[in-house]
Task: structure prediction
Amino acid sequence: MVKGANVGLGGLADGDVDSVVVSLGWVSPTGEGDADVSVLLLDENQKVRSDADFYFYNNACALDGSVQLLGKTPVGEGSEDRISFDLTAIPQDVATILIAASRYESARFDELEDLRLTLNDASGEPLLRYAIDDAGGVSALIFGELYRRSDEWKFRAVGQGYEAGFAALATAHGVDIEDDAADNAVVPEHSLLLANTEQSEATAAVAVPAPRKPADEAAPAKKAARPRTSKKKVKLPKARKKSLAENESWKGARLFPVSALKSDRDREMRATSVLLAVMAQVPEFGRRLTAGFGAPAGRMETFTEVSLPHGDSPRRPDGVIRVERAGKLWTALVETKTNGNPLKAEQVQAYADIAARRGYEAVITLSNDVALEGSPLVEVKIDRRRKNKVSLWHLSWAEVAHQAQMLLRHEGVGNPAHAWLLEELLHYLHHENSGCHGFQNMGPAWVPVRNGIHDETLCQGDPRALEAVESWERLIRQVSLGLGGELGQKVLPVQRARRGTDAAARRARMADELCQDGRLQAEVRIEGVPGVLAVTADLRTGKIRTSIEIPAPEQGYPLSWAKRIVRHLAEAPADLHIETLVEGETGGPRGTLERLRPEPGDMLPKSGASITGFRLSLLKGMGSSRGNTESGFIRSVDEAVYKFYTGVVVQLDRLTGGKGAEQVAHA
Result:
């Protein structure tokens, strides 16, 4: 589409388009740029009905399920923000849905590249794409809007920017902003405060909290056991004192026992039943898992041990999910694997064929493995000639646990029974006998690749190197999910724009680099943390390096910087390496924190060259086996990232004014 153009959604698909997913994306040449998405529901006068019609990162879901901000999802060039709309649930007095994004402080959209909006139907089929190439120096941008015309939903490509930031955009559409924010011509969206007290009290059930401030503007906050959230959380009861009728060896009764699980089939059946039951009984959790698959917000029913006709022998998928809203059904077949067992292509293909014939919308696979962009776990042919389109989706057990943990620990669950069910689900998923532990094996190519690098016999083009790279990418995505669940923050792998947008070509280059220098590298961005956390596994030395770069302060003297860094890293590990980054030179002074504590001045270059920043690094021994045992590679990477965050990045937050110290108090 081009700017100003509009199109009816009904004309883009074979049938009615009741649910759509909008994705906003961009590319940062430096890898540092990002923006926050937001949605405003407007009446016929192009004004919000109340402040509750403003959806953003801390008010991400409408109570009726009509709007849900799904967060960022990794793509080849970085990530995209996805928003799910159930158009049948949008109130009748809403005429327009505004889709926007805004940048922080003085950042502008002309610093980003490949600004785009894509709109897909519920099955994931692309309907339209709108590229914005003339955003200009604005800090807030309306990408597009969905609007009603004669009971039909249409989309308009807007591309309108606001130099004065999100404050100007919001006030123009009726959102109440405090006077001190509205008077500032360049106030970013993070410093907005929704200030209409009467409306806030009237809509207490969907209270909209104030958007976040940038880390360097936020006032210092006291440490809290948990980060603040927009919903009231249920506090689990404290452990009571032991009575005479208790024994230390006794185990408390669990809703989902695991002791009787003896075979892989037992684990698959139990895991499927446990998950589907909790999804049906905890609507906010079930909706969280299915919204990204195009399912509407409605009454969910789940089934196990079903039998469906298929030729001479019936097929028995592990489960069925059915969502009903306004007389319309959305149905998905579920195929489950546990304990690291792989999905079978012929089995999933059979379910896709059955779903197409019976008019089902989706097939959902669930296993320990992590799906990668451009590299499906199983090859399935979808007959596009059929009127009914079937979409294939994948969930990893790690993602299921992540979503449950985010909902229970950080965002809040208002119903005590729902909180208890999620607690029992997490206990089950984390139990060693459940088989639901996520990605736990680097694959059969891992040991030969390690040996080949050690012996210098691994050649470029060896397919085993590509398998090792794919396993590494899966591991990093799972580590990001685990850390994000602990912190309650978005943690996403970073794909630099310079590596290209073709996922397969990018992995091929990484495989060649692995053969050449024996290292696997990745970067992870943690929301609220300046810079990115770099992870390098050096297979030649058997070491894992975790590091982060911080820029030099704009004011002050270099010696003051050095003393301040050492002082704020007082609780960091003594073997933390600190390297001074010097302009125009390959490397500056470096040393361990233990050695630099008595002499911070040793961090300054003798030549007097300009300091551009500092690199903080930790080294950890690499596990020797390919799995997740105590000596395994997977566990060693997971522990290295978590140790670096809790031991270094949290201390770094005190230096930069971030919020990591508060967040890690709970983790």
